[in-house]
Write a structure and sequence with these properties.
This protein is an alpha/beta fold. About 45% of the residues lie in helices and about 15% in strands. It binds serine.
Length: about 325
Amino acid sequence: MTNTKTRIMLTGASGQIGTELLKILRRAHGDSLVVATDIQPLSDPALRESGPFELCDVTRRDRIMEVARKYDVGTIYHMAAILSATGEKNPQLAWNININGTYNVLETARELALSRIFIPSSIAAFGPETPRENTPQETILRPKTMYGVTKVAGELLADYYVRRFNVDVRGCRFPGIISHETLPGGGTTDYAVAIFYEAVKNRRYTCFLREDSRLPMMYMPDCLKSVTELMAADFGRLRHHTDFNLAAMSFTPAELAAEIKVHIPDFAVDYKPDFRQAIADSWPTSIDDSAARKEWGWNPAYDLKGMVKDMLDVLSRRHAEGRLNY
Ligand code: SER
């Protein structure tokens, strides 16, 4: 039995995806129906004013339950997580937040009979034994990062809740997400955001990955589109639930730099790979997303050229207005 409650709760609302997801959820469902939560208050005053907010540490199940009950929540988007690079610096923290956070959200969904849950996974679920090119939907999942370990466990656990407790959980394996509203925090793909800010501001960037490190990436509008479309899909038509492969584009730092140079000809990049190189080397270079295309019509809008043009338009305008904040 699921309920018909219409209120939505979002964890990790201050994060890179959370901030933008909050905006589109409030626009789509009404400001007062979307409860933003995070371990820190929202920094954007407009978002702070636009609807309800609660402090919520996802490692505390009682607090998640309390917020869900208080607002009569029906749906949770669980975006709070520690990413790959921070996870390698502090594996215990990554385990605690990612594993216990996911478990607590799933238990809340089961106990309160919530109607729908979104829990993202990541390309970090794959590892060096996985076929790296056009990585299949069904494949070897032996990640070598703590972040990846928690993502595989999260996929399996969420899938267990679908089959065992009939909880409607959905999720996809996000590639690196590129955006211009909130900076990513602690990921291996973060270079693909930082490079734009440095290009606009200083015309120089020192990249922490090798120039030939090809990784799957996606522009934020496609990321938001994938969440919205997967959450709206007919559950009965889904064969997969919590682990959809998603693709949009794949590129190396050198290819990204070359595309930025089309717009900023004097842009220069040098390369000083650090510990994140080993993480990148353990991930796929491209992804087969045919299951998502078939089961719920996934079709990304942005390729490398379109994404680079849009990112530079937005950030150059902001820089000219003295509002780059980087
Ligand atoms: N962007 C994430 C990271 O780099 C991948 O999911 O950790």
